[in-house]
């Protein structure tokens, strides 16, 4: 899996990067066929935004979250991605059974 974390108007610190990687491990537990993950962190007028695009076999998944705290934004974004990954995995399994 390739992981890319970049920041707009924000320096991506080791702590933020480590937090994002730890949260991504939650997604890896549910679906280990992640090919590429691009995370963009942005600060605009006091609003902390986190966006991610995940390329998995057969689909590209996207999630975005905003809050006053970057760590909360990352947590919410990862939760949204987790739901999408689980849904995609179920769709693949149902397709194979039919």
Offer a concise description of the structure.
The protein is α+β, with helices and mostly antiparallel strands and 98 residues long. It has 2 helices and 4 strands, in the order βαβββα.
Question: Overall pLDDT, averaged?
Answer: 89
Anisotropy-based shape = elongated
Tell me the Rg in angstroms.
14 Å
The biggest sheet amounts to: 4 strands, mixed
Strand order of the largest sheet: 1-2-3-4
What is the succession of H and E elements? EHEEEH
CATH H-level homologous superfamily name: Ribosome hibernation promotion factor-like
Second CATH tier, the architecture = 2-Layer Sandwich
Q: Could you characterize what this model shows?
A:
The protein is α+β, with helices and mostly antiparallel strands and 98 residues long. It has one domain (2-97): 2-Layer Sandwich (Double Stranded RNA Binding Domain). The protein is 46% helix and 38% strand. It has helices at 14-30, 70-97; strands spanning 2-8, 34-44, 47-56, 59-67. A four-stranded mixed sheet has the order 1-2-3-4, covered by helices on one side. Strand 3 and strand 4 (59-67) form a beta hairpin. Helix 1 (14-30) packs parallel to helix 2 (70-97). The chain starts with a strand and ends with a helix. 19% of the residues are buried. The model has no long low-confidence stretch (mean pLDDT 89).
How does the SSE layout of this entry go?
Blueprint: E1 2-8, H1 14-30, E2 34-44, E3 47-56, E4 59-67, H2 70-97
Parallel strand pairs: 1-2
Antiparallel strand pairs: 2-3, 3-4
Helix pairs in contact: 1-2
């Amino acid at each position: 899996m390739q992981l890319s974390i970049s920041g707009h108007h924000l320096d991506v610190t080791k702590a933020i990067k480590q937090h994002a990687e730890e949260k991504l491990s939650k997604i890896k537990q549910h679906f280990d066929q992640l090919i590429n993950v691009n995370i963009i962190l942005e600060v605009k007028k006091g609003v902390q935004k986190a966006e991610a695009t995940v390329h998995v076999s057969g689909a590209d998944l996207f999630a975005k979250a905003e809050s006053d705290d970057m760590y909360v934004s990352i947590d919410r974004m990862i939760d949204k991605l987790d739901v999408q990954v689980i849904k995609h995995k179920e769709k693949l399994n149902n397709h194979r059974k039919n």
